[in-house]
From TrEMBL:
<keyword id="KW-0378">Hydrolase</keyword>
<keyword id="KW-0256">Endoplasmic reticulum</keyword>
<dbReference type="GO" id="GO:0016787">
    <property type="term" value="F:hydrolase activity"/>
</dbReference>
<comment type="similarity">
    <text>Belongs to the TRAFAC class dynamin-like GTPase superfamily. GB1/RHD3 GTPase family.</text>
</comment>
<keyword id="KW-0472">Membrane</keyword>
<dbReference type="GO" id="GO:0005525">
    <property type="term" value="F:GTP binding"/>
</dbReference>
<keyword id="KW-0342">GTP-binding</keyword>
<keyword id="KW-0547">Nucleotide-binding</keyword>
<feature type="domain" description="GB1/RHD3-type G">
    <location>
        <begin position="1"/>
        <end position="149"/>
    </location>
</feature>
<dbReference type="InterPro" id="IPR008803">
    <property type="entry name" value="RHD3/Sey1"/>
</dbReference>
<feature type="transmembrane region" description="Helical">
    <location>
        <begin position="602"/>
        <end position="621"/>
    </location>
</feature>
<dbReference type="Pfam" id="PF20428">
    <property type="entry name" value="Sey1_3HB"/>
</dbReference>
<keyword id="KW-1133">Transmembrane helix</keyword>
<dbReference type="Pfam" id="PF05879">
    <property type="entry name" value="RHD3_GTPase"/>
</dbReference>
<dbReference type="InterPro" id="IPR030386">
    <property type="entry name" value="G_GB1_RHD3_dom"/>
</dbReference>
<keyword id="KW-0812">Transmembrane</keyword>
<dbReference type="InterPro" id="IPR046758">
    <property type="entry name" value="Sey1/RHD3-like_3HB"/>
</dbReference>
Length: 656
């Protein structure tokens, strides 16, 4: 440090610069100047102390006083005098309130050494200088000259630090040395961190790991990634070890945060692959468990527990030592995916199970119900109700144990049982509606069956002895019973008057041709609903029943007419002899021809041969049988129709 006598600006600037950049400030003093005001550099010491007060730094700087051309006066006498002068200067410096009572030792380590005259004792001078040089070589060792070494700037940042310090000093700004150390450490540590971050981005190991994890889950992902980060953190620590510790730690943490942000997507990809694989494993295990016939709910619990355990192991393997990343969100999503898949499989299984039992119910009810409707007796609905209850109970008894493995809540269980019962009822209702749509055809078939067959189910032969009127009434009665059966759904065992109304108004009532299409004001069939039956259970309204009956009567009228014609034809075919008056007429009118035959026997022979041929044809072609089978009726029916429409009052009597 250059000695100057005046307390000039340069002295202050140089003193400030020396204190800012140096750990040891060496002050040369002539031995004979000790105790003098100017020659002893007292103004300079005052400047040094004032600058130190401006720094307000807890960092100690070593002031090494080198006494030159030491005389015979022992150093033990000179050092106390020098220290006393230094203490007086310290006490005379104006201090801030915070350091008013702070001793000199808090800011400076004062060391005193002496060198002999170079001209008089050259060899001794060189030896002592060499010893002093060794003290500088080991100045940073414990107990060395370099003080406490706090706020030291590493060599890599010294140039930048010195430039910034001198710039601040020349601009006459107050220098906060700790802040400057922080600034230098901030700049350099940030440069080092950015350099390491750039190297990390292009690091081959990291790029390879990133590529692998984008394709599939990587084994030992966390260990490999932690190793890569450790390498770069170690490099950062090695290059920033001499900078301000707080700044170095802060920048290290910032570098680590940026690095973790860079690798975090890879970690998320790893967790995503683990979640996907765990979900697929759950699906496979659940499918295999169900194939073995295990209960559904128990299988889901077992497979879900094992899947979550394996996922947690994978998360532990993927964990990065430098980050406390939470995998709970991915774990929760895996839980939701497992529950969603289990719910989907459960719904499919329940749907299939429900469909199986619905199919079973349909097979058990459809054909028997159709057969019961074909019979159409008074006990049809009682038989249907009995059949429905029996088959429903059978299905429920099997369906209930099948549902137990799903461990459904009571409301869901009761709802599914009720749905199965409702389905069985809907099968009956559907078949009833189908039969209602085919009732006219069923009625005509029933009429033809009863009308054309006797009590032994043998085809009727209209010989003239049958009572067509009573047979017709019986046939229509059976058809009307069928209509009353399909007019409404009777699964609730509620009584109704549908059959009695239909019989009283359609079968027992008297309808003429003129008023057939004219409604009666008091007619219960002139309505769109039955009194005892709800609209939901109504299959055929009264008006529809009346319309169907009219159509039925019109379409079966021809069958009755044909039977009457066949009966009349049969009577005529059995009367082989002509009437008596015809015989008398033939005798009287054929007397001359008869006499001619007697006179000519040859004619008689010809007539005999013709008779034999006719008789042979009569027997061979079974002419009487053909007459009975309707050949005569084909000739007689048109004539009979003409006769009936000529006398309509006779037609009404025949139909009734």
């Amino acid at each position: 440090m250059e000695e100057r006598g005046d307390d000039t600006t340069f002295e202050k600037q140089s003193a400030l610069f020396a204190l800012a950049v140096a750990d040891v400030v060496l002050i040369n003093m002539w031995c004979h100047d000790i105790g003098r005001e100017q020659a002893a550099n007292k103004p300079l010491l005052k400047t040094v102390f004032q600058v130190m007060m401006r720094l307000f730094s807890p960092r100690k700087t070593t002031l090494l006083f080198v006494i030159r051309d030491k005389t015979k006066t022992p150093l033990e006498y000179l050092e106390p005098i020098l220290r006393e002068d230094i203490q007086k200067i310290w006490d005379g410096v104006r201090k801030p309130q915070a350091h008013k009572d702070t001793p000199l030792s808090e800011f400076f380590n004062v060391e005193v050494t002496a060198l002999p005259s170079y001209e008089e004792k050259e060899e001794q001078f060189k030896n002592q200088v060499a010893q002093l040089r060794q003290q500088f070589f080991h100045s940073i060792s414990p107990g060395g000259l370099a003080g406490d070494r706090r706020g030291v700037v590493p060599a890599s940042g010294f140039s930048y630090s010195a430039q910034q310090i001198w710039k601040v000093i020349k601009e006459n700004k107050d220098l906060d040395l700790p802040a400057h150390k922080v600034m230098v450490a901030t700049v350099r540590c940030e440069e080092i961190a950015n350099e390491k971050f750039g190297s990390l981005m292009i690091n081959e190991d990291w790029r390879a790991l990133e590529h692998e994890v984008h394709e599939d889950a990587v084994r030992n992902f966390g260990r490999r990634l932690s190793s890569i980060l450790d390498d770069f953190l170690s490099e950062y620590d090695a290059e920033s070890v001499f900078f301000e510790e707080n700044v170095r730690s802060l920048k290290r943490q910032q570098f680590l945060s940026k690095a973790l942000q860079l690798v975090h997507p890879a970690f998320i990809s790893q967790l995503g692959h683990l979640r996907d694989k765990s979900l697929e494993a759950f699906k496979t295990q659940l499918e295999q468990s169900l194939r073995r016939g295990e209960a559904f709910a128990a299988s889901v619990r077992k497979c879900a527990d094992s899947t979550i355990i394996e996922f947690d192991k994978g998360c532990s393997d993927a964990a990065v030592r430098h980050a406390n990343w939470d995998a709970s969100k991915v774990r929760d999503k895996l839980h939701r995916d497992i529950e969603a898949h289990a719910s989907s499989v459960r719904n499919d299984k329940l749907s299939n199970l429900k469909a199986t039992y619905e199919k079973q119910i349909t097979a058990a009810l459809a054909e028997p119900i159709e057969s019961l409707f074909e019979v159409g007796g008074s006990d049809t609905w009682a038989s249907i109700r009995k059949l429905l209850k029996r088959e429903t109970d059978v299905a429920i008894s099997c369906f209930s144990p099948a549902l137990s493995g799903f461990e459904l809540d009571q409301d869901t269980f009761d709802r599914m049982m009720q749905n199965l019962k409702d389905y069985a009822r809907s099968v009956v209702e559907k078949k009833a509606r189908e039969e209602a749509g085919k009732v006219l055809m069923r009625m005509k078939d029933r009429f033809n069956t009863v009308f054309s067959h006797d009590s032994d189910s043998m085809p009727r032969l209209w010989t003239g002895k049958e009572d067509i009127k009573s047979i017709t009434k019986e046939s229509r009665s059976e058809s009307l019973k069928l209509l009353s059966v399909v007019a409404a759904i009777r699964l609730d065992e509620k009584p109704d008057r549908i059959e009695s109304i239909l019989f009283s108004r359609l079968l027992e009532g008297t309808f003429s041709i003129r008023d057939r299409d004219r409604g009666d004001s008091g007619d219960p069939l002139a309505s769109s609903s039955w009194e005892e039956v709800s609209r939901e259970n109504t299959l055929l309204t009264p008006v529809q029943c009346k319309s169907l009956w009219r159509q039925f009567m019109a379409e079966t009228e021809y069958t009755v007419t044909q039977a009457i014609s066949a009966q009349e034809a049969y009577r005529q075919s059995n009367n082989l002899l002509p009437p008596a008056w015809a015989i008398m007429a033939m005798i009287i009118l054929g007397f001359n021809e008869f006499m001619l035959l007697l006179r000519n026997p040859l004619y008689l022979l010809v007539l005999f041969v013709v008779y034999l041929l006719g008789k042979a044809l009569w027997v061979q072609m079974n002419i009487p049988g053909e007459f009975r089978n309707g050949i005569v009726s084909k000739i007689a029916v048109p004539c009979f129709h003409l006769w009936l429409y000529s006398f309509p009052e006779l037609k009404i009597g025949c139909l009734n």
